[in-house]
Amino acid sequence: MGDCADCPRHGSLEKSIEANEKWTGVKFDAIDAKMVATAKVLDSRLESLNHVKQQRQEDRGEFLRKDVYDAKTAVYDGWIITVEKRFSTAESKTATWTAAIGLFFLLVQVGLHWVQK
Question: How far is CA 50 from CA 37, 42, 60, 113, in A?
Fold first, then answer.
């Protein structure tokens, strides 16, 4: 068979292979560029998520946990109930004394009016 470099069939086959390799190279370059762009986007998203996580951890340190809050306020809750009871008792005693003094002066006025007649 020999060297058939001049053969039209063999030359077109080589051209077809070269075109296919060139097209495959372009395709892979496009895929690589897309992967690089996607990696940049993912890195940006990951960085923003890490920033949000760090802020959340910092914020968590600023707040009390519920069990700690309940333990600290339990003392105050008991004190508030005691004060409310005392105020309620004082208010009822004040109302009673006010009514008694009002009744006393009413009786004094009636007595003075009756004595003057």
Answer: 20, 12, 15, 89
Distances (CA, A) of 8 to 4, 14, 41, 74: 9, 10, 49, 97
Q: What angle do CA 51, 54, 58 make, to 5 degrees?
A: 140
> What's the CA gap between 4 and 15, in Å, rounded?
14
pLDDT at 61 over 80: no
Q: From the CB of residue 15, how many other CB atoms can be counted at a distance below 10 Å? A: 10
Q: Is the pLDDT of residue 70 over 90?
A: no
Residue 31 pLDDT: 92
What is the distance between the alpha carbons of residues 33 and 89, in angstroms, rounded to a whole number? 82
Q: Which two tokens stand for residue 54?
A: 């760090």
Give yes or no for a contact between 42 and 36, defined as CB atoms under 8 angstroms apart. Answer: no
Expressed in percent and rounded to 5, the helix, strand and coil fractions of the chain are 90, 0, 10
The confidence score (pLDDT) of residue 5 equals 55
